[in-house]
Amino acid sequence: MCVRRCVITVGDLGEFGAINRITGRLPQGAAVMLGPGDDAAVIGAPDGRVAVSTDLLIEGRHFRRDWSSGYDVGRKAAAQNLADVAAMGATPTCIVVGLGIPADLPVTWLDALTEGFRDECAVVGASVAGGDITRCDLVVLGVTALGDLGGRPPVTRAGAAPGQVVAVAGRLGYAAAGWALLEAGAPVDSSVLQEAVAAHRRPCPPYAEGPRAAELGATAMLDVSDGLLQDLGHVAKASGVRIELDPQAFPIGEPVAVAAKELGVDPLEWVLAGGEDHALAAVFPKDVRLPASWQVVGRVIEGDGVLVYGREIGHSGWDHFR
Amino acid sequence: MCVRRCVITVGDLGEFGAINRITGRLPQGAAVMLGPGDDAAVIGAPDGRVAVSTDLLIEGRHFRRDWSSGYDVGRKAAAQNLADVAAMGATPTCIVVGLGIPADLPVTWLDALTEGFRDECAVVGASVAGGDITRCDLVVLGVTALGDLGGRPPVTRAGAAPGQVVAVAGRLGYAAAGWALLEAGAPVDSSVLQEAVAAHRRPCPPYAEGPRAAELGATAMLDVSDGLLQDLGHVAKASGVRIELDPQAFPIGEPVAVAAKELGVDPLEWVLAGGEDHALAAVFPKDVRLPASWQVVGRVIEGDGVLVYGREIGHSGWDHFR
Question: Would an 8 Å CB–CB cutoff place B50 in contact with chain A?
């Protein structure tokens, strides 16, 4: 009988109960030779090299429990790391997750988080191969993704050269529009606005376009996490080139356009400076024949920085300490 | 001129300034084919498999800034993950670090942390190949270590069989003694007590003994992070065996003995239940000839659980939620 408190919490389960509950929900992908439960997992790396990327997500900074469900947080946390691996031209093989959670966290939230991780990994045939759990007053997620390069050289940020073209795959500005709607407390009553909010809660990176771009001869690539201008600035700097973007070339998604009208904002601001959609941006040789999933949005010339409308746009992305 | 505030903080540097400062202090090991600065690092995995382990360390829970320097925290955080990889019989190749830090963190602390990570990795020929930095009110470290199995099968927790022997390499009880001294506010005025406190701040895992044990035919192995009894309980459970320890077989280190006398504690309690020294515990075939670095402390018989003095000792280790 439940009189005083009906919510089962992580503290009720204890550390090993929580671990068992999590691992019981995690089927393992083909690359996982030894999954959760030992000192380390063992993952296939047939290429003889492994791509590895890690991110830390902090409650209140990267997500809010009142804005995003546990399931959404799991999908987003997995997505941003899987996208980093894809942006090297690699195919993700697994993630491992360090999980800091409060003892009073409802077990249902933990279950949903686990299922979010599981489902986002499944999109690319990967899985959660291991992790660590500890108590923390905030929900903190340390997510590391591994990937296999399939015999291809990694596509870094440093290979762009004058004369090449810049293209993007995936959505731009959706997550920023959704975040702005939530922060403004705007009514989100239409399905088109709901799509923007959903994009903030759960990005849809075009994972398969990463290895595909590598096969198409991409000379530089990254995932757009801090905003296209800032992220392409990294490519310009690492490659020693200038990138000139054509603002007319960007398709403005309907959710971005409608949210911008609602909030009186220039939608291009979200497209160019909004992060967290985890689109891929890549540079290709000029004569490349790109599939429809890639949209040419600019070109590489001599010089430095990133130009839009012929002028350099400031550092508009996200700095975690300013 | 510095009038109001002379401490340079992470907030003064900004995110990219902090990243540059960190990566400038990180030479890269032989396995690193692409280091920090891109979406992902690329690490050699000549074995065609990669061992991967992750841990989350939270300020106030796993370390205190008033008890441990940034350098000590870096060494400890690296050590506990490198030890996990070694406990599979693998040779660590790199770590990646997700770093959550407050804007008012002094840059000197960040520098020391970085140097601690660097130096602990250097002990095994590894390096910090990548990471992520974000703002957080607490210092939070998400550390992931990778390792190469060198063609050997991973040594899991599940291979122990009746008739085999249990052995340990490395120190036991030192870190627990040091922690107890600090928590009691006891005077630490002798070099022998200082050694215990130093062991709490900075473990010295016997990394090379991991691959060595694998080569000697270890059938099960783990690193002692939550206390020997609890950790061997995992081996007993995973292998479906009983482990019987001989309490007389454990050498009690002088710092453990002296600290125990100082605080009126049975030193064997720290040896058997204290975690964080990251010793290695392994099971070997009965006829193995072990080098002096491994001490036989028990045997595997039929049954379940872990016995000391012929009786089962309760769950004496550390549960993060209880």
Answer: yes
Distance from CA of A117 to the nearest CA of B (A): 16
Q: How far is CA A63 from CA A14, A73, A82, A84, B1, in A?
A: 25, 7, 18, 19, 40
Strands A140-148 and A165-169, sheet pairing: unpaired
* pLDDT classification of A267: cutoffs 50, 70, 90: very high
Q: Which site among A12, A15, A50, A224 would you substitute to test the B interface, given the most B Cβ atoms closer than 10 Å to its Cβ?
A: A50
Task: Please state, in angstroms and rounded to a whole number, the distance separating the CA atoms of residues B120 and B118.
Answer: 6
User: How far, in Å, CA of A26 to CA of A20, rounded?
Assistant: 10
User: Under a CB-based contact definition with an 8 Å cutoff, are residues B76 and B68 in contact?
Assistant: yes
Task: With a cut of 90, say whether residue B67 has pLDDT above it.
Answer: no
> Looking at residues A186-191, what average pLDDT do you find?
90
**Chain B residues in contact with A221 (beta carbon < 8 A):** 39
A94 and B CB contact within 8 Å: yes
Q: Coil, strand, or helix at residue B274?
A: coil
- How much is the mean pLDDT over chain A? 93
Return d(Cα A241, Cα A158) in angstroms, integer: 9
Kindly list the residues from chain B whose CB atom is less than 8 angstroms away from the CB atom of residue A320. Answer: 15, 133-135
Helix axes B191-201, B254-263, angle to 10 degrees: 100
In one-letter notation, the amino acid at residue B222 is L
Domain map (residue ranges) of chain B: 10-148, 165-312
* Chain A interface disruption, residue of B39, B152, B219, B319, most A CBs within 10 A: B39
CATH number of B165-312: 3.90.650.10
Residue B20 has pLDDT above 50, yes or no: yes
User: In which band, very low, low, confident or very high, does the pLDDT at B321 lie, cut at 50, 70 and 90?
Assistant: low
At B125, list the tokens.
């020929």
Q: Which residues 133-152 of B are in CB contact (within 8 Å) with A?
A: 133-136, 140, 142-147, 149
For A10-148, CATH gives: 3.30.1330.10
